[in-house]
UniProtKB/TrEMBL annotation:
InterPro entries: DNA/RNA_pol_sf, Rev_trsase/Diguanyl_cyclase, RT_dom, Viral_Replic_Matur_Polypro. Transmembrane segments: none annotated. Coiled coil: none annotated. It comes from the Eukaryota. It comes from Racocetra fulgida. This is 10092_t:CDS:1.
């Protein structure tokens, strides 16, 4: 990472610990535990878009494009005076990051603000962005190509890079935030629903709270959800 300019040697008075997380393929992922840094960081209150509003905006669309930005957060450079705060210690040396990491508490808000500025001329007209996921939607194929060219030009002007391997172009169906969106229809992602159905019956308050939270994500697809969930929510109350 040092050769690639992602990190550099540091003389920072700050230092966060390294954490190695085992991935599904049994390889180790290098992470830095920024919980202590995040706890004393002044929070950025810039709001992320509401998923329900974004889904409503896709209702009339017939053509979809999903763009994925290459290592999205890593395309944002950390201000020079803040780099020392990202420092971490190894047995070889103390290092600090030159780029923004997703584990920093203000990273999502920072990147969302950036993308809102970059795509401002197209936002909510034919393009939407949720952090580093850019979606283009159109009612006709001809307009779709025009919209794609417009968004590409906006992204190119800021030197942001797109990962073509994770992009999906000119489709009639799109996966968006745990939902499947196609012509005149929005439905839950079947794979996510299957995982929800396979969850064991909650036996503790924590497990029940998790289950209700997951089910609530798809509440608009469940008839009388509030009424059905009321007995479960009551169990979360004290002295029940």
């Amino acid at each position: 990472m040092e050769k690639e300019g992602i990190i550099q040697k540091s003389r920072s008075p700050w230092s966060s610990p390294i954490v190695l997380i085992k991935k599904k393929n049994k390889k180790l992922r290098f992470c830095v535990d920024y919980r202590k840094l995040n706890s004393i960081t002044k929070k950025d209150t810039y709001l992320l878009p509401y998923i329900d509003e974004m889904l409503d905006n896709l209702e009339k669309a017939k053509w979809f494009i999903s763009l994925d930005l290459t290592s999205g957060y890593w395309q944002v450079e950390v201000k020079e005076e803040n780099k020392e705060k990202t420092a971490f210690i190894t047995k070889f040396s103390l290092y600090e990051f030159n780029i923004m990491l997703f584990r920093l508490c203000n990273a999502p808000s920072t990147f969302q603000r950036l993308m809102d500025v970059v795509l401002e001329p197209a936002l909510w007209k034919y393009a939407m962005v949720y952090i580093d996921d850019v979606n283009i939607y159109s009612e006709t194929f001809e307009k779709h190509i025009e919209h794609l060219k417009s968004v590409f030009a906006l992204i190119k002007n800021t030197n942001l890079r797109i990962n073509p391997e994770k992009c999906h172009f000119c489709t009639n169906e799109m996966q968006f935030s745990e939902h499947i969106v196609n012509i005149n229809r929005i439905k839950p992602n079947p794979q996510k629903v299957e995982k929800l159905e396979k969850l064991p019956s909650p036996k503790t308050i924590t497990q029940l709270r998790v289950f209700i939270g997951l089910a609530s994500y798809y509440c608009q697809f469940i008839e009388n959800f509030a009424k059905k969930a009321a007995p479960l929510n009551k169990l979360l109350q004290k002295d029940v």
